[in-house]
Write a structure and sequence with these properties.
By secondary structure, the protein is mostly helical. It contains nine helices and no strands. The chain has one domain.
């Protein structure tokens, strides 16, 4: 399968490529801000929770990009660069000094790639229980059962599996609405 003419032309122009990657970054950032992630699926509405939601959505998109033919690998690298440039700027806005930003960025990078490894392993194995456990530990901060979030991630991964590069850069990643998934269970309550 060859690269579509639209994509080939897009990557001849650096400015258009940057805009396409920025659009993809905005789309996954918007998906990570959907209220249902926080109100229904238990992602903590904190700085850390928002970081985890952004990482989760970025990792899912990167999984798909890494399985597509060229120039998807270039888009994946540009997307990672864009996400980490934004994280760097956010740390500075929060008042972290220049000396502390580098150390925090290293920690954020290690956390991001560690999560990517865990999510990939569980999704590749089709192991719902392992996915649930890694999501509870990383995204939910050890709280809740994570069943609804795991279902959301599996449906997202399946939807992304059918998206080509044109679709990802055009319409954006096909993330489902989080409100359609089973909510977290409170102790003693039935979901």
């Amino acid at each position: 399968m060859g690269v579509a003419p639209m994509i080939a032309g897009l990557f001849r122009r650096a400015n258009a490529r940057r805009q396409a990657v920025e659009g993809l970054h905005v789309a996954l950032s918007m998906a990570a801000r959907r209220p249902g992630l926080y109100t229904r699926l238990g992602v903590p509405d904190t700085v850390e929770g928002r970081f985890e939601a952004l990482c989760l959505h970025a990792i899912l998109v990167l999984r798909r990009l890494n399985r597509l033919p060229a120039p998807a690998a270039e888009v994946a690298q540009d997307l990672v660069n864009s996400v980490f440039t934004q994280l760097d700027a956010s740390l500075r806005e929060l008042g972290v000094g220049d000396m502390g930003v580098g150390k925090r960025m290293k920690k954020l990078g290690a956390a991001f790639y560690g999560r990517a490894t865990g999510y990939d392993a569980a999704l590749d194995a089709g192991d719902t229980e392992a996915l649930r456990a890694v999501l509870v530990r990383n995204v939910l901060g050890g709280e809740g059962d994570g069943a609804g979030l795991a279902a959301y991630v599996q449906v997202s991964d399946a939807a992304l599996a059918s998206a080509d590069l044109d679709a990802l850069l055009g319409a954006g990643p096909p993330f489902p609405e989080p409100d359609g998934f089973t909510p977290i269970r409170e102790e003693g309550a039935i979901a």
